Every structure is written in structure tokens, then in C-alpha cells.
Amino acid sequence: MDLDVFVTAHRAEWDRLDALLGRRRLTGAEADELVALYQRTATHLSLIQSSAPDPQLTGRLSQLVARARSAVTGTRRASWRDVTRFLAHGFPSAVYRSRRWWVPTALISTVIAIILGWWIGTHPDVQASIAAPTELRELTRPGGQYETYYSSHPAASFAAQVWTNNAWAAAQCLILGIFLGLPVLWILFQNMLNLGVGFGLMSSAGRLDTFLGLVLPHGMLELTAVFVAAGTGLRLGWTVIDPGPRTRRTALAEEGRAAIGMAIGLALVLFVSGAIEGFVTPSGLPTWARIGIGILAELAFLLYVFVLGGRAARSGETGDVEAVERSATVPTAA
């Protein structure tokens, strides 16, 4: 594309659109003209971005298109309808669409945690490198630090602290996924290593049942949320490498917006797991009851994703914002 020729051919249209946007009132004919000019200018912007990107011209046209879209569609305010749509369709469909990433991530990570736990639990020399024998006994004995950890603070403040920490870990997986997913792998390994250390030390002390009774009630839902975040982050990283038929800019914009929605949704899921960890895990309920509550929470989330989310995804929901709120683009060849 010869950019100078293109600008010369269409400058008058852009100036006319700018002039119409500056008026407080428009006639019917002028309103129709504004809509037509907005559509043409949006197409011009996409062509320039894909064929002859020029920062100054792109900035001017982006601002012009944004103003025109606001004038055409009007100012839109968030409503309870948006919240309902997000919870019933957007979030579960986004999790469902990422299942080919987070389900294998969950399976592989769990296997790694078990292997690490077995290795630590069966090798005294590895345990000695973690802490001194007296410290290990203090960690694993009845009434030791592993057990008192969950009741060391008031339930409400402990749940809030756990929720904040886990939400930040999930957000890191989603945000850092754009760096080809490499930071996500490190965050996952750290989580599995921490789990493996507890698994190995408590099993070597003959108290694996106690450890599982403390971890499973909240851990199933909590780890599922972390795995979903990690899988989504890895998917975002792969989008950088292979955006498919979309342009890399468009693909990253779409997947990035969906990832932001995922962060909000997962914060709600982690709020539930934090509440379980703060109020159920240290409670006086029998172990079977505490684990049963954790299983019910996990099953509810999986049904929410695979039934409600699957139905929404098959109807075309992607977890992205509604079409009217997206940047205008032109079709690209596959």
C-alpha cells in the first residue's frame, strides 16, 4: 500500500467525520452519513494496521474511530445484566474453551507433586536437607505446625489472607502467560513442590491420612482454580507463537480480554475455597465430612464449567466482551 496515496484519497472523509463529531446536533441525513463514515474509517484503520502501520496516523484514526463508535452506540453503563451474562455464560464458557490446556496441566502437575512427595518421603537425606530433625518432628507431630497452621488465626482473617494469596498466584499465571508461558511453569512447579514437601514429610511420619484430611477439603477447588489459571496462561503464551488465522494483535486482544475475565471469575472461585480453608478445614467436623464438603464444591464447579460452560461455548460464547464493544476489524484470509 502506498500510504501517501491512501491518505490523500481518504483524508476528506476523515475530516468530514471529525467535523460531524464536533456538532452537538445532527439532522437525520447527517446521522446516516456519520454512521457510514464511521464504518469506512474503521475499515481504513484496519487496513493501515495490517498493511502499512504508521504510529501517528494509526493513533489519529484510532481516536477518531473510538469517538465515532461512542457517538453511534452511545455511552454504555455496566448493569446487573452484564454480571449475570458473565457468571452464566462468559466465565464458564471461557474455562470450558481452555479445557484442553488446563486439564492436562492439572493431571501432569498432580503426578509431579506425587512423585516429589514419594521422593521426599522415602529419602531421609532429602528430608535432612529441608530442615533439622527436631524441626521436622515439630512440623509433623500431632498438634504440630502442619495441623495448627489452619487454626493459627481467626477464621475470617485467615480466609481473607488465603484468598488474597491464591488470587494473586492465579493472576500471575494469567498475566505472565504472555511471556511464552515460561513464568507459568515456574509458578506451577513451586506450588507442586510445596505440596510435595508436605505430602512427603507427613507420609514419612506415618500421618498421611491427617495431611490429606487437612488439604483435600479446600485443596481440590483451590488447585483446580490454579490449574485453570495456569492452563489459560499457557494458552495465551502459545497464542504469541501461533495466533492461527487471526492477526497476532487481534488474537492477543481477544485472548487477553478473556483472560482478564477469567481472573475475575477465578477470584470468586478462590473466595469459596478460601472460605472452606478458613472455616471448614480447621473445624471440629469429622474428616469424612470435611472432605465431603470439598468434593461437593469441586463437583459443583466442574458441573458449572462442563454443563453450563459447554452449552454456552457451543452457542458461540467465547468469554470475550460483546461484539459491539470490540475494536472494528476487517476479515483476514485463513
Short description:
This protein is mostly helical. The protein contains 13 helices and no strands.
Describe it.
The radius of gyration is 26 Å and the shape is elongated. By secondary structure, it is mainly α.
Give the secondary structure arrangement, pairings included.
Elements (H helix, E strand, L loop, with lengths): L2 H19 L6 H24 L3 H19 L6 H18 L1 H23 L2 H7 L2 H8 L4 H4 L6 H22 L5 H23 L3 H34 L6 H33 L6 H28 L20
Number of strands: 0
- Rg on CA atoms, Å: 26 Å
Shape: elongated
The secondary-structure element order is HHHHHHHHHHHHH
* pLDDT < 50 runs, ≥5 residues: 323-334
Summarize model confidence as the mean pLDDT: 84
Strand content: under 5%
Largest sheet: none
Percent of residues in helices: over 70%
- Specify the number of helices: 13
SS-derived structural category: mainly alpha
Q: Could you give the distance between the termini?
A: 21 Å
